[in-house]
Give the backbone structure.
Amino acid sequence: MALEGTLKDFSLADIFQLIGLQRKTGVLTLRGKDDTVTVTFLDGKVVAADSLNRRLENRLGHVLLKTGVITNEQLNRALEIQRETLQRLGFILTHYGIITNDSLRDAIGLQTMGIIYRLFRWQDGDYHFSQETTIEYDRDNVVPISAESILMEGARMIDEWPIIEKRIRSYDMIFRQKASEQEIVVVGADDADEVDFVEPAAGAKKKKSASGEKIKISEEEKSIYTLVDGRATVADIVETSRLSEFDTNKALYELVTRDLIEEVRDPSKISAVEQQVVDQTAPVEIPPVPLPLVLLAVALALVSLVTAVKNPLNSLRPMARKTSAVYEARKAISLQRIESIGDGIESYRLANGRLPAKLSDLVPFFAADELLRDPWGNAYKYLQRPEKYLVIGFSADGRPDTDLFLSHSIEAPLPTSSANRPTGGISLVE
């Protein structure tokens, strides 16, 4: 039994949620243009992730350096021992007391999550999930991570990455600090000046310090601000920073938005993107096409059209089967989300003594905002009645689906499975 297809048909969030909710064990392989990544699941939880271009073992030392757990000298000595003994780097570091087992677990977790979170930026690629009865992983140093916790952070990244990339367009960009008459002070994250993640053209500053006021930035933003020297590229800063790749780029975006740093532009150089724009806007002289060639092209087009009309389903049937499989999988995910919403409503009622007024009231406590919409983007309908409440799901065309329906009495306890399951017991695609 396997789940496979392309990320254009089935999003990474949907894949993770389906594997997590059905508590599957196996290996998810994703192949993109520039990398191949494997993610290993045990009972629906992530226990390993590796990248063909960023091997976990080769990057472990770098993570420990970035987080300040070890020094360059300690890492070089451990690598010498590794070359002599061929032992795993993590074993060497813990065996000789250079780091603790907890530090090793944290570093492996950070590297694993870094690999997974980069996947959320993929726009296209092929995926294949191979279900297994048992899998091997580093049980001593790996703490399984629930798919739900990954999706909570992943949803935030999906929303904010496109906006960040409007200003941090390339890892080759170079920034420098801007002179400011206002004093920059470091405060706690909750007290720092906030930035709204909206389209830059619409204005991105949520709280702008008035003239003469202090500019408040967080410790994380300060650590990135000090790395901006007019020479280091964004890639250099990401490698040097102790923050994750996403948080480093987010801090750069916030500093640019607050007008604390600016891009360094070399007039003698023009980026490949800018050159492409110039090339596209330059006038192009198109030679005239001979009339015989035009007539031949028209004739071939007509022949092709007649052939296609005679048997139009030959090319469409495989796509129809694939679309049906994707639809059924998304329907299963929608069903699981409705059941999760029901659990959240009951938890809210127990905590507050009343039902939530609307489903969005569940977000701060019991659910991610994306779970309140089905895989097609439709918001679930929530209705309150004197004796019960209803949660209604929809099909792909936005019509109510009788298979995706939850009706729960307010007085009775919530059943383990309160929604009507679609016939056939949707699971992974055969």
Summary: The first strand starts at residue 2 and ends at 6. Residues 168-263 form a domain with the Arc Repressor Mutant, subunit A fold (CATH 1.10.10).
